[in-house]
Design a protein that fits this description.
It contains 15 helices and 7 strands. Helix 11 links the parallel strand 6 and strand 7. The longest helix has 21 residues. By secondary structure, the chain is an alpha/beta fold. The chain has a 7-stranded mixed beta sheet, sandwiched between helices. It starts with a helix and ends with a helix. Helix 4 packs across helix 15, helix 6 packs parallel to helix 7 and helix 6 packs across helix 9. It folds into 2 domains: 49 residues; 265 residues, Rossmann fold, CATH 3.40.50.
Length: 321
Amino acid sequence: MAVRKRTTLFTTLSKDSAEQLDTLASRTGKPKTRVLDEAVETLYKKKEGEDMRQHQGTVITIATNKGGAGKTTSTAAIADILARREHRVLLIDADPQGNLSKRFGFAPNAFAENYLGELIQDRMDHREAHRDIAYYINKSSEHPRIDIIVSNLRLDGDYSVMNAENIKGTTVFRTIIEDVRKLDAYDYILVDTRPSLNNEVGAVLVASDYVMIPVEPTEDAIFGADATIKFMATCRRMNPDLKLLGLFMTKVYDRNKSFREAAPVIRESWADSVFKTLIPRSQDADNAGNEGKPVTTMFANKKLAKKYEQLVDEAVKRIHA
């Protein structure tokens, strides 16, 4: 029976694979069945190693106090690209507007109980037993490698309670991240914050490994990026390991006078911290947002998506340098 199965397997090989099998058998002096057995064993061990690997749970927060810089568009795009590269990604939508949640199929006006605000309230409660972190993690139906802790319109009220709790409020996101990491399920944890530099954003940065700052090549945006970096310095008092992963220019139109004037200032001000990749201004970003999808999903083969691919290449290289 085994012989008949192997014979069938040989006949289903492509022409190129069959020729390579003949070559390997000839070079090694082994029967073709033995060569196949060894190849399958090698692949199995590789896959088993991948499945057993520890997930690092690297936390990257995309932050700026300048609205309209493409923060949510970028967060969704980066997550989608990492997932398509077979990484497991958890998104945390820390912006009460909930635009990131919408990109992955969750409406911020749907009054679900397992949203970020309820998680914050649970972790700040003084009782000993807390609800399992998995309860608050939602699965994305269209993105099997992406999970999300969603936002909700009630999140503003939860932040008010959090901000009133001083130290406990400052460290609540750190507690949440610690609980997520115990799951050993995610390679990257991406956090989308509101365009502000307040206590709730500070609490996120206290729990983060890296910050990425989107910056439009305009004078106002440059001041916003500078304020964000200074705010990071304050957060490092509680999180000395917080690092600037980099600034990346968004909504770039290289024929625009504003870009020609601002881009050199950005590069001179932050030098090697500025990513080389320029994210262009594109109607595709607005169209994808209106459809509630990541731009890299909806327009995967177009220029904007390709640029985000390059940005992710740069970011991952910096993390693993």
